[in-house]
Structures are given as structure tokens and as C-alpha cells.
Amino acid sequence: MSRLEEIKELHDRIIEAHDTGDIKMELGDLLGELFTEGHTDYLIQHAEELERNLEHGAKVTVKTAEKLYYAQEESHRYKQALEFYAHKTTYEPLQQGRLTMVYSPIEEDCGKKARKALEESE
How far apart are CA 21 and CA 27, in angstroms? Predict the structure, then answer.
């Protein structure tokens, strides 16, 4: 029988002693067993451990949420840069003139959008 099962059984016996009115002798013996067997210490230790684990889990959850937020922001910047370089009009000349040099948006950009997206992630 596990420690927790023993404590549950003892708990049930205490409730039964209380309900049947046989409180004096039986309840005193049961309470003595509860304390002398270290069951209350066991419960307190496990409750404290559970609290520590919950606090740690909450901290991990917050850190994970922060990392996810920054990863989503970074992904959005990369997507915008990729969309710029993938769009067909990016490669079309801006102006056509006789003596004017003709540059497409991608030639004008020279990779600025990509570098900016990468720099913001660092």
C-alpha cells in the first residue's frame, strides 16, 4: 500500500470514528498514529514540493511565452522581407527613359530589407 493510500485509509477511519460517535479512544489513537507515523510531515513536504513545482512551472511558462512572442515577431519580419524579394514587380524597372539609368526596386534596395530584418533579430 502506498503512503498516500495509508493516509487516505487513516483519514477515512478518523471520519468514521467521528461519525459513529466513538471519538474518545478511537480518535485519539488515530490522531496519534497520524502524527507518530510522520504522515502529516509527509503531506506537508509534498504540498511544499508541489508549490515549488507550480512556481517553477509558472516561470517557465512566462519565459516560453516571451520566447514565442519574439520568435513570431522575427518570423513576421522575415516574411515581409521574403515577400518583397519574391514579388514579381520588385524586379520591374521603376522608370524607362533614354538617358536615365533604370533600376528595379530590388536593385534600389541592395538587400537593405533583409539586413534590417536580420539585425532586428539580434
Answer: 10
3-class state of residue 102 by DSSP: coil
All residues at 6 or more sequence positions from 6 whose CB lies less than 8 Å from its CB, including other chains = 37, 39
Contact 117, 80 (CB under 8 A): yes
In tens, the pLDDT along 56-67 reads 888 889 899 999
What is the average per-residue pLDDT within 64-72?
92
* Other Cβ atoms within 10 Å of 74 Cβ, number: 15
Helix (H, G, I), strand (E, B) or coil at 118: helix
Q: Name the residue with cell 534600389.
A: 108
Q: Where are the beta strands (DSSP E) in 5-46?
A: none
**Residue pLDDT, tens place only, 93-108:** 666 666 556 677 777 7
CB 74 within 8 A of CB 121: yes
Q: What is the rounded end-to-end Cα distance, in angstroms, of the chain?
A: 56
Q: How far apart are CA 85 and CA 110, in angstroms?
A: 11
